Amino acid sequence: MDNQLGTERVIIFDTTLRDGEQCPGATLNVDEKLAIARQLARLGVDVIEAGFAFASPGDFEAVTRVAKEVGTIDGPIVCSLARAIKADIKAAAEALKPAAKGRIHTFISTSDIHLEYQLKKSKAEVLAIAEEMVAYAKSFMDDVEFSTMDATRTDPEYLYQVLERAIAAGATTINIPDTVGYTTPSEFGALIRGIKENVPNIDCAIISVHGHNDIGLAVANFLEAVKNGARQLECAVNGIGERAGNTALEEIVMALHVRRQYFNPFLGRPAESEAPLTNIDTREIYRTSRLVSNLTGMLVQPNKAIVGANAFAHESGIHQDGILKNKLTYEIMDAESIGLTNNQIVLGKHSGRHAFSSRLQELGFNLSETELNKAFLRFKDLADKKKDISDWDLEAIVNDEIKTTPEVFHLELVQVSCGDCTRPTATVTLRTQDGEELTDAAIGTGPVDAIYKAINRVVNVPNQLIEFSVQSVTAGIDAIGEVTIRLRYEDKVYSGHAANTDIIVASAQAYVNALNRLYAALQHQQQRDRSLA
After folding, report:
1. How far apart are CA 147 and CA 285, in angstroms?
2. In this structure, how many other beta carbons lie within 10 angstroms of the beta carbon of residue 43?
3. First CA to last CA distance, the chain
4. Contact 15/48 with Cβ under 8 angstroms?
5. 8 Å CB contact between 473 and 493
6. What is the average per-residue pLDDT within 220-228?
7. Which comes out higher in pLDDT, residue 379 or 276?
8. Is the model's pLDDT at 175 over the cut of 90?
9. Cα-only R_g, the chain
10. How far apart are alpha carbons 454 and 441 in whole angstroms?
11. Most confident listed range (43-57, 343-357, 369-383, 472-486)
């Protein structure tokens, strides 16, 4: 094990594509996972947990694609989750084969409540399983991580035993999850300290932590864990994940960045050292946040720390006066440190394809020729409607154009008639994959409601609209509006996202995008059912 890696800096383990994706409505397809994985590599994360290979054919494919295309020799470690079951571990090993640096992450519950009600096994049985399955994972690759699920509600003495056996069997990282977001900072710090003091072979493994934000303490818990010896932090972009979400990557990274003089001594560094505590390129944080938000359909709340729209906004006169005199009066970090530019105008209607392509590359987009052509046409169309086009506008239209949702239905036309003395009416035309055009009209309580009712008449799949949101990308009357919607069908949630200067058109496109996701999922399920029949 690299001792320097384990003691002098903090390893960032990103689980956006695994635990983050488990957030209702955040389901990603393989191409979307790949796009996020590429950005995570640019961000500088040390480990990408690409999925749960055994969970589904889609997850297996996603892990394999990320392993092959992002898991290069100079790229991050690519990891797959696996229960402490041979079939899971074998699937993870198979999916990770293309990675230059692969990791199997296997886990089993250890708390009394999980053992009694979920596993229905004794402590002795779980101890034996942990040891055997870590050794089995080790037979496939050297890098093995072992997690004790619900560790914060596990009897500490039993936890020490399980961890000692797992490390002896070959685990190079041992992970302590706060699975249900139950612990507090002082308790979590004490737990990590107890592991350091009571697991005899702990120096042979890196201590990792995994947190959930159920009572809003995930980041605070992690900081206390770092002070007590944890050197790997498992987190997700924008804090997405089950229930209240995972520990937010951007928050924990910037906390360590802004307060590194405070944390330096805990990592054996001189207090005055300016060296970063992680490998993260903080200037990629905002772009990563936007990409994850767009592809998952999970909006970032305006007052969200670090990446929220209001994170660097100052309305109070006293604050504004101080900021104008010296930014440090009311800002503890520079907006540019997370990649948030001053929204400088870069392109207009006379800009050519080369300038457009070059700017997209500077913004971190690597588009295929087809994607570039589609995005350039959207740019030219936007330039005719909007005099000045900012980086944020470019990000919005490019993310909108390179969506990887299968187009079962393509929006051909949307027209609305509304006003204070008329009943809102919408007409829509959709084109199917076979080229058939379907047109219908409907009346609604408003223009968007009328559009959705007309689309439902064409598509004819029962669904429940559970969220509709419109956000302005930039200021001004000609701003692009981003629409995000979420639909529920049976027990699953599907998101749709679209951007346009016309929010009525964006609303229609977002709805069609969500329906396309729904249809793709239904078709995939039907194919699986036929293959099993």
Report:
1. 27
2. 29
3. 48
4. no
5. no
6. 98
7. 276
8. yes
9. 25
10. 5
11. 43-57
Please give the Cα distance from 376 to 369 (Å, whole number). 10
Task: Give the Cα separation of 136 and 4 in Å (integer).
Answer: 28
Distance separating alpha carbons of residues 298 and 304, to the nearest angstrom: 13
* Residue 224 neighbours by CB under 8 Å, 6+ apart: 185, 186, 188, 189, 192
- Least Cα distance to 64 among 88, 22, 92, 39 occurs for 92
pTM of this structure = 0.83
Which two structure tokens, joined as six digits, stand for 113? 């409540």
Question: How buried is 366 (Cβ within 10 angstroms: 0-12 exposed, 13-18 middle, 19+ buried)?
Answer: exposed
DSSP for 314-365, please give it.
--SHHHHHHHHH-GGGT-SS-GGGGT-----EEE-TT--HHHHHHHHHHTT-
What is the phi/psi pair of residue 232, to 5°? -130, 135
55, 242, 406 from 490: Cα distances, Å: 20, 19, 21
Higher pLDDT pick, 341 / 34? 34
State both tokens at 166.
Answer: 């797992």
Of 250, 215, 255, 254, residue with least CA distance to 235: 250
Phi, psi torsion values for 170, nearest 5 degrees: 125, 5
What values do phi and psi take at 182, rounded to 5?
Answer: -100, -30
In one letter, which amino acid is 377?
Answer: L
Contacts of range 158-162, beta carbons closer than 8 Å, 24 or more positions apart: 158/110, 158/123, 159/110, 159/195, 160/194, 160/195, 160/198, 160/199, 161/127, 162/110, 162/126, 162/127, 162/130
Give tens-digit pLDDT for 91-131.
999 999 999 999 999 999 999 999 988 888 999 999 999 99
Q: What's the sign of the alpha-carbon dihedral 32, 38, 40, 43?
A: negative
Angle at CA of residue 243, ends 239 and 248, nearest 5°? 10
Angstrom distance (rounded) from CA 54 to CA 87 = 8
Give the β-pairing of 144-149 and 173-178.
parallel
- Residue predicted with more confidence, 470 or 262: 262
**Residues composing the chain:** 533
Could you give the CA distance from residue 517 to residue 407 in angstroms, rounded to a whole number? Answer: 9
Taking each helix axis from N to C end, the angle separating 86-95 and 57-69, rounded to the nearest 10 degrees, works out to: 40
> Which residue type occupies 332?
I
Instruction: Say which amino acid occupies 40.
Output: L
Question: Rounded to whole angstroms, what are the CA distances from 27 to 242, 441, 519?
Answer: 12, 31, 14
Residue 119 DSSP symbol:
I
- 209 CB-near residues (< 8 Å, 6+ apart): 175, 176, 177, 178, 188, 192, 221, 222, 225, 230, 232, 233, 234
269, 262 contact by CB (below 8 A): no
